[in-house]
Amino acid sequence: MGDEPGNAIEVEIEIVNDQGLHMRPVMRLTELAMQFKSDIRLCKGDIIADARSPMEMMLLDAPKGTRLKLRALGEDAKAAVEAITEFAARKFSDEG
Amino acid sequence: MKFSDFVVAEAVIPELSATDRNAVIRELVSALATAGRLSAEESAEISKAVIQRENQGSTGFGKGVAVPHAKHPKVETVIAAIGRSSAGVDFSALDRAPVYTVILLLSPPTQVKTEASGGAHRPDPHLQAMENIFTHLQRENFRRFLRQATTREAILDLLHEADEMRDNG
Question: Which of A23, A31, A61 shows the shortest C-beta gap to B67?
Fold first, then answer.
C-alpha cells in the first residue's frame, strides 16, 4: 500500500479476435483496466490510448493481427499487464 | 467518412419520446424507417438485433453518450440516427451515468458501397464511421453542444461544423 509508483512495465500484445478491437471488447477492456490503480496505456505507433478511456481506445484502429504496446506504471502494474495480456489472448471474451 | 455521409437528417430527433434503452433504440430505428431508409418489417427485425447486441455489452461508454450499433443484412449502406434525451436514459453505461445523446449506427455485414462513394469499394465504412464518431465525441465541447442542441437544425449544424473541421484539418 502507499504511493509507490512501482515499475513501468511494457509488453507487446496481439489482437487475435476476428473482429479486432471493436467497441464491445474496448468496453470490456476498459472495465478491466478500471480495476487497477496503475496508469495503463495501449500504443499503436504514435497513437497512445488511456486504457480507461473507451473513446481513445476506439481510435486505435486495431483489427485482427495488430500488435499493440501495453504499458503500465504504478503499484499494481505487473498484475494489470498480466490480466490484460491474458484477456487479449482470450479474445476479450469475444467470440467474434 | 463524414457525418453527412451516414447521418440521415430526417432521423435526427432533438427530443426522444422514449425513456428506456430499448424504446430509444426502437424510436431511432423507426425514424430511419420513416425517413425511407428501412421498411417497417425491417425496422422491427433490426431493432431486435440492436437490442440483442446491446444486451451482450453496453455501448454506453460514459460521458452521457451511447453508440448502439449493429451490422445487418437488411441494411444497404452505413446509416445513422441521432437522438437526444434531456431527461437522460439508463444505458447501463460504463460510468453508470444517464445517457443524453444516442447515436445509432447501422451497417451492412459486408461493405461494398457507402452513401458518399456511390458504390466504389472502400475499406470497412462501418469502422470509418465509428472512427469519425469517436474522433468528435472525444471533444468535450462537441459532446456538450450535442447535448444542449434542442432542435434538429442545431444538431445538424453541429455535425456540419464537425465535418468542416475535419475537412480543414
Answer: A23
Of the partner residues A27, A59, A61, the one whose CB lies closest to the CB of residue B94? A27
**Domain span at B97:** 3-167
| Domains: count for chain B | 1
Q: How far apart are the first and last CA of chain A?
A: 39
Q: What is the pLDDT of residues A26-74, one digit of tens each?
A: 999 999 999 999 999 999 999 999 999 998 999 898 989 999 999 999 9
Question: What pTM, to 2 d.p., does this model score?
Answer: 0.87
Map grid coordinates 437522460 to a residue. B88
Go through the domains of chain A in sequence order and give each one's CATH number. 8-93 (3.30.1340.10)
Q: Of B15, B32, B1, nearest to B106 (Cα)?
A: B32
A16 touches B at CB < 8 Å: no
| Beta carbons within 8 Å of B46's beta carbon, 6+ residues apart | B29, B38, B70, B72, B74, B75, B106
Q: With beta carbons less than 8 A apart as the criterion, state whether B89 and B24 touch.
A: yes
Whichever domain contains B87, its CATH number is 3.40.930.10
- Among residues A53, A63, A73, A64, which one has the least CA distance to residue A11? A73
ipTM attached to this prediction: 0.76
